[in-house]
Amino acid sequence: MAQRQDKKIEPLYHFLAKTPLFEHFKREEITALLRIMEVWKYDAHEPVFKENDSGDSCYIITSGAIGVQKKIFEEGNEIKLSKLKPGTIFGQVSLIDRGPRSATCIALEPSVLLKLRRNAFDALFHTGHVTAYKFQDIIARIMIQQLRLADQAYARIIQQLTGDQAEQISEAGESAASGVSATLEWHENTETEPTTPTHTEEYLERDFTFED
Q: What pTM was estimated for this model as a whole?
């Protein structure tokens, strides 16, 4: 059963500072984010959340591994999409739109996760803290890359299917694209503007690589 752990800022700071996600964050920015996050430990084979669960949080893996699974047909057949390693963020879509989870995420081995809840992130965002804008920028970049990868996988699957199965996959793809479009629109139309720059040109141009 998942258990909340004591949070020790210093070792968590050193872990995040070494990950590609936070390489452009200052120490005080990472610390500000850690202060509003929770630490949770999951046993092997324990779900973090299941597909269609309501969601309002995202996670960063600090140790262990998380498997991502998804039902692709009405019959309930599940496929394994990926294995996520330490330093990976997941569940970020629900952090933004509070919608149902699009896949099941399960601990493949004992795992420790940092959890960021939507209400805590919103509170930080409304203070105008630069950390919130930079983290939001990361989420947008991850989603764009995931959409590109999904397009490639979608094309490969359609080539192998015909009839009703292909139609089901097509409808699911259109729904997912609409969700990403709405999320990116939210990202660009946020009313509050940062009081300081959220990134440099180098940060904007960086080609981040994340596992989905």
A: 0.71
